[in-house]
């Protein structure tokens, strides 16, 4: 039990004018004198009717409140912006940092001693973890849980892996409009976020791997009664975290981050998680180079048989034991001494855990693949690094050389991709420029470049596709993304021309443009930087301060001072 004065006490025990105001205004909304003497727990409710993944959060909040009251705390709910992936244009990534700022400032500005952060959809959990790292008051993550599996004709469906599949087959002429509508009605059949190992499920798993969510939280389906139980337990536990004065920086250590990366690699998790983990680490004052991810990937077997890299989905993962069971299998590779929000170490949390289904979670000694799901690629095309989810790649493309078919922008790609006169064949490399943080803007999830119509009709379903943008964690195929530096800041990726040969070697972790340096220098001398998209407001702030992908796409001014100073000295 900590003897440190709680933040709420400095508000409500104060005998000056402002103490009077704080007590009077708080009592006027129904709280009593006894209530304001207890630990005040903020509940960050990101419910929004514009965020399908959070549609059930108002109910979960009530269960959190019950847990807080039972543990002797006083709950106070507050809102922040809510980022729903399907709707936000040009991309929710444009607003992740805004949500992180909103959450951090709400946490710091109010008389709350601890906070429960309710997230789920892709950018919400990373934004909340970034905020928790910066505000550093006792915090715990509660994710909303995945949807139930979609069902159609006896087949199990997953959003949005099957969204891509159905629309692709419709484009190829294999499904009519009525069949497509039937699939639309069948794929999302409950509350919750995407039920494959996409970004939402990956970030929920990372929250557990970091020790910032209670064990088992990530995989419980949104509509399962045990999600309500988890909400109540989370409300109960945050009160204890306040009493123990256990803060995010006590939990999110470098070793904990390495544990979270290990869980991600064993899961075949989303490439987006790399950007988010870098941003979280930097908020904690740590540099997290891409090489660290690749080193951990090389020593971490791929164990989780989940789509889009496997056969099953989050519902089966929950039944197999969820993240605790995967971590139990990974235990020899983890830092077991790391403290978690349970008040116990990783090793203590895993003491009585077992794997319940070996079809879903493979043994460490008999993995699906010998190394992890994401590979970091370097080379003259991406000196700052790029990523590929190799567990979702067609094996024939692990080593590939092909001629570039270049699109200079998203608009250019949409205009020409299905042109019957497009000079493209199955072994071509589709290249999409100006899709990065500054160039798009916001680095949208458009890196799953569509297969050209004329190749679809011939049965082609995968090609090598390269961009400086992102992909959904639910995507599949041979997709190289997060090329850095991006085209819009003068990176070599912006110098590719039609017909250039590109060599991809996933085994060797290389991505090379087979053009000599003299020619590249000529092209660079003619390169013209694109005009900025914004002339005011948040968009201008984003364009002026966002960092490149390997630095987490955070705003430079949000980094701790020592990292800002180092960044300036290296620029």
TrEMBL record:
Domain spans labelled Dihydroxy-acid/6-phosphogluconate dehydratase C-terminal? 359-553
Class of the enzyme per the UniProt entry, highest EC level: lyase
**Keyword match Metal-binding:** yes
Q: Which GO terms describe its molecular function?
A: lyase activity
Instruction: Note the superkingdom of the native organism.
Output: Bacteria
Q: Which segments constitute the Dihydroxy-acid/6-phosphogluconate dehydratase N-terminal domain?
A: 38-349
Its EC number(s): 4.2.1.-
InterPro entries, sorted: Dihydro-acid_dehy_C, DiOHA_6PGluconate_deHydtase_CS, ILV_EDD_C, ILV_EDD_N, IlvD/EDD_N, Sugar_Degrad_Dehydratases
Question: Which keywords does UniProt give here?
Answer: 2Fe-2S, Amino-acid biosynthesis, Branched-chain amino acid biosynthesis, Iron, Iron-sulfur, Lyase, Metal-binding
Family membership: Belongs to the IlvD/Edd family.
Recorded protein name is IlvD/Edd family dehydratase
Native source organism of the sequence = Oceanobacillus aidingensis
């Amino acid at each position: 039990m900590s003897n440190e004065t709680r933040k709420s006490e400095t508000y409500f025990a104060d005998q000056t004018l402002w103490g009077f105001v704080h007590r009077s205004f708080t009592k006027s909304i129904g709280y009593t004198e006894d209530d304001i003497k207890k630990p005040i727990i903020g509940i960050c409710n990101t419910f929004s009717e514009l965020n399908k993944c959070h549609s059930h959060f108002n109910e979960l909040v009530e269960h959190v409140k019950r847990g807080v009251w039972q543990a002797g705390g006083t709950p106070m709910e507050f809102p922040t912006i809510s980022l729903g992936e399907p709707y936000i244009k040009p991309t929710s990534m444009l607003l992740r940092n805004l949500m992180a700022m909103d959450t951090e400032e709400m946490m710091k500005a109010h008389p709350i001693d601890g906070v429960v952060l309710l997230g789920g959809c892709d950018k919400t959990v990373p934004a909340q973890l970034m905020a928790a790292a910066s505000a550093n008051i006792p915090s715990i993550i509660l994710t909303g849980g995945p949807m139930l599996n979609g069902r159609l004709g006896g087949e199990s469906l997953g959003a949005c892996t099957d969204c891509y599949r159905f629309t692709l087959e419709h484009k190829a002429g294999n499904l009519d409009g009525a069949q497509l509508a039937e699939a639309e009605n069948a794929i999302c059949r409950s509350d919750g976020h995407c039920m494959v190992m996409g970004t939402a499920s990956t970030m929920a798993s990372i929250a557990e791997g970091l020790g910032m969510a209670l064990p088992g939280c990530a995989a419980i389906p949104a509509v399962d009664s045990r999600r309500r139980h988890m909400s109540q337990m989370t409300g109960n536990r945050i009160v204890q975290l306040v009493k123990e004065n256990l803060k995010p920086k006590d939990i999110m250590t470098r070793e904990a981050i390495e544990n979270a990366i290990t869980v991600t690699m064993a899961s075949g998790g989303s490439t987006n998680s790399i950007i988010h983990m870098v941003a979280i680490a930097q908020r904690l004052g740590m540099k997290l180079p891409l090489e660290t991810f690749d080193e951990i990937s090389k020593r971490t077997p791929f164990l989780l048989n989940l789509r889009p890299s496997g056969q099953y989905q989050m519902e089966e993962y929950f039944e197999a034991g969820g993240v605790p069971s995967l971590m139990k299998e990974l235990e020899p590779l983890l830092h077991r001494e790391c403290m978690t929000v349970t008040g116990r170490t990783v090793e203590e949390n895993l003491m009585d855990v077992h794997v319940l289904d070996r079809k879903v979670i493979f043994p460490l000694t008999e993995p699906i693949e010998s190394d992890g799901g994401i590979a970091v690629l370097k080379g003259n095309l991406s000196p700052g690094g790029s990523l590929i989810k190799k567990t979702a790649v067609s094996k024939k493309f692990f080593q590939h050389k092909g001629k570039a078919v270049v699109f200079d922008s998203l608009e250019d790609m949409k205009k020409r991709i299905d042109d019957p006169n497009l000079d493209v064949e199955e072994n071509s490399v589709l290249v999409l420029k100006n899709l990065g943080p500054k160039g798009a803007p916001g680095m949208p999830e458009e890196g799953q470049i569509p297969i050209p119509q004329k190749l679809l009709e011939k049965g082609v379903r995968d090609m090598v596709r390269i961009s400086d943008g992102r992909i959904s964690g639910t995507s599949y195929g041979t997709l190289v993304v997060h090329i850095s530096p991006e085209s819009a800041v003068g990176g070599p990726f912006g110098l590719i021309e039609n017909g250039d040969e590109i060599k991809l070697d996933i085994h060797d972790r290389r991505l090379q443009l087979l053009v000599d340096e003299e020619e590249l220098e000529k092209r660079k001398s003619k390169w013209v930087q694109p005009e900025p998209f914004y002339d005011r407001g948040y968009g201008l702030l984003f364009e002026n301060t966002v960092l490149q992908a390997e630095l987490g796409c955070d705003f430079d001014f949000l980094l701790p001072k020592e990292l800002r100073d180092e960044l300036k000295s290296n620029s």
